[in-house]
Amino acid sequence: MLSIQTPTLLLNEDICRANIRRMADKAAAQKVQFRPHFKTHQSLKVGVWFRDVGVSAITVSSLEMAAYFAADGWDDITVAFPVNIREMATINRLAEKISLNLLVVDPASIGILNQQLTAEVGYFIKIDSGYHRTGLEPHETTLIDSILTRAGPYLRFRGFLTHAGHTYGASSAAEALALHRESRHRMQPLRRRYVKEYPQLIISVGDTPGCSLAADFADIDEIRPGNFVFYDVMQYQLGSCKLSDIAVALAVPVVALHPQRHQIVVYGGGVHLSKEWIPATDGLRNYGLVCRLDARGWSSALDGTLVCSLSQEHGCITASLQVISSLHVGDLVAVLPIHSCMTAQCMGGYTTLRGKVIDHG
Amino acid sequence: MLSIQTPTLLLNEDICRANIRRMADKAAAQKVQFRPHFKTHQSLKVGVWFRDVGVSAITVSSLEMAAYFAADGWDDITVAFPVNIREMATINRLAEKISLNLLVVDPASIGILNQQLTAEVGYFIKIDSGYHRTGLEPHETTLIDSILTRAGPYLRFRGFLTHAGHTYGASSAAEALALHRESRHRMQPLRRRYVKEYPQLIISVGDTPGCSLAADFADIDEIRPGNFVFYDVMQYQLGSCKLSDIAVALAVPVVALHPQRHQIVVYGGGVHLSKEWIPATDGLRNYGLVCRLDARGWSSALDGTLVCSLSQEHGCITASLQVISSLHVGDLVAVLPIHSCMTAQCMGGYTTLRGKVIDHG
Are B255 and A83 in contact, with CB atoms under 8 Å apart? Predict the structure, then answer.
């Protein structure tokens, strides 16, 4: 770690494995299928840590990711993204090798799938349970019926899938949990209406805040959280995790100290952390919380010390004079990311605290 | 183009070459050194288009980028980022091969450079001319003197460099231009004070809004704009360019139409466009303007049609019923990015309208 020269995404394997085990245990205790979303880590190596707790079915958000994991032996994959009919060749190639589930939002997709599929795929119908990003509303049963009726012999109906992404915008854990519960509640009429015809029907839900906070999963069949594998400052702020559950931090070199403006400049910008931010006090933006770093790992977040602006390669940290005077140009500090999925995507790889380099697809 | 399956960053070579030529001509007419910043495009191929108009000296924002371009024959490179003393081995390797200029902000760096340099480098002192990101203030001549005095035999002083990045936050072209002028004005006492001792002293400025808007560069020696190579919606909004000067657009497949909420969902999210946004009317966020796309390229931006939210892979576009009813699932549309540097970094490559695939380092 002490030999780090440029911004490096550190991964604490112990924390990450504990996050994985906690969610796997909860799913097992609640007797729901655990189909974790791999879009956060996108790593074959981290995938192995999921295999170690018995996970065999996964979720991804693109066919490219599905192909990446399929090549490593994952053979039961849901692509939780509205089917992109421009990628039919990729879909058919994958469907021949693995058990592939697609997501249908628009009845217009069914015609093209019927025409162009050459192998069997499962499909979920995407339901908008309150997030309003995409999906049919639970009461749009005419459209749902039209999808079910039109689906041809290569399309096997698996159930209804929703993502209560609006829990990410909640202002408290209680509100996030209430939104998650309401979202699940809105799925129940669909089960009642369609379960006779489709007794194997799955109700699948996804959000990390809800899956972290909910005490039970009584009325659903499958959970697909992803972010929990690393968590981040946004999840901490929301109450989904403790700060000590955050499994990744960006190690950044200090390149300038500006005590007169209470700022530290680091080599670590929007191309490393992503430009995701949450509001901080005093009208500031929070692009990440700052920790000390030594050979064993990162400390807890330094009080009142946060990344307040980012340009392409620069990060500006606001800090007390006490913190600034304890640092030198050339030191390393660690930044806990606001949104770990985006930071992992920017960095395209990890280094564990033990110095192992880990892939990101 | 019509065979595009997944989000693809299109590059209009004609527009890009015209942007390059316009800025090169302006620099030549004003008799200033044109040292374009290559952090926006990060492409060897686009670099060739700069060579075609006679550019031989460039700016980058990391040693990694410097090495990328040095390997392609660029031998006069300024790394316009506070020197990261953790990368001394890379600095020495590069300095042996090319004419390398570093940026010194913190006097503490000088001691380490003196100790560890094994080849000659040029250095600029970074001046804060109003942006307040990093740099010494023009009146901090004691610190400047201390840098100049302490600099050892391998360090050759080149001049004072500033980046008036606060022009990006201006609310009008007139304000951006005024900030750019004020920033240049603040550099002049430095020239007066140090020019006798350093007659070759260079005053170097960098921002795209200022360099695009200014009619003359009378009081400076070098310009380092970067973004102008592609421009983007942020620059258009600011008045630095016309919409028709934007040289890149992200082609994205339509995956769902939601006429009831006036929305289109596309395969193209924060991992493709970056999460950079600017405020739009009605409290909306603008993550990109939307154009039609056909085999010849993209249209002008569709009235009132913009990307209003982004998640990892999803983009939600707000559009009129007229626009929505003209599209089908599986169609392509093009998104003009808010900040082209970030989008180019996310995408890591380009496809020209003629179908050529182009590198991004």
Answer: yes
**CATH, domain range B13-230:** 3.20.20.10
- List b or e across B207-227, with b for residues whose CB sees 16 or more CB atoms inside 10 angstroms: bbbbbbbbeebeebbbbbbbb
Per CB-CB distance under 8 Å, the chain A contacts of B106 are 255-257, 329
Q: Could you tell me if B271 lies within 8 Å of chain A, comparing CB atoms?
A: yes
Tens digit of pLDDT for each residue in A181-230? 999 999 999 999 999 999 999 999 988 999 999 999 999 999 999 999 99
Residue with tokens 């007066």: B192
Topology of the domain comprising A242-359: Lyase, Ornithine Decarboxylase; Chain A, domain 1 (2.40.37)
Residue of A281, A331, A328 lying closest to A305 (CA atoms): A281
| Cα dihedral sign, A240-A158-B329-B355 | positive
| pLDDT at residue number A166 | 84
Which residues on chain B are in Cβ contact (under 8 Å) with A106? 255-257, 329
- What does the domain layout of chain B look like in residue ranges? 13-230, 242-359
B56 phi/psi in degrees, rounded to 5: -130, -10
Tokens encoding B87: 């990368």
Return all residues near B182 (Cβ < 8 A) that are at least 6 apart: B129, B130
- A13-230 against A242-359: fold identical: no
Tell me what ipTM this predicted complex has: 0.94
CB contact (8 A) between residue B85 and residue A4? no
Residue A130 near residue A164, CB atoms below 8 Å: yes
Q: What pTM was computed for the model?
A: 0.95
CB A35 within 8 A of CB A59: yes
- Choose, out of B115, B131, B134, the residue to mutate when testing the contact with A (most A CBs < 10 Å): B134
Q: CB–CB of A39/B312 below 8 Å?
A: yes
CA B286 to chain centre: 20
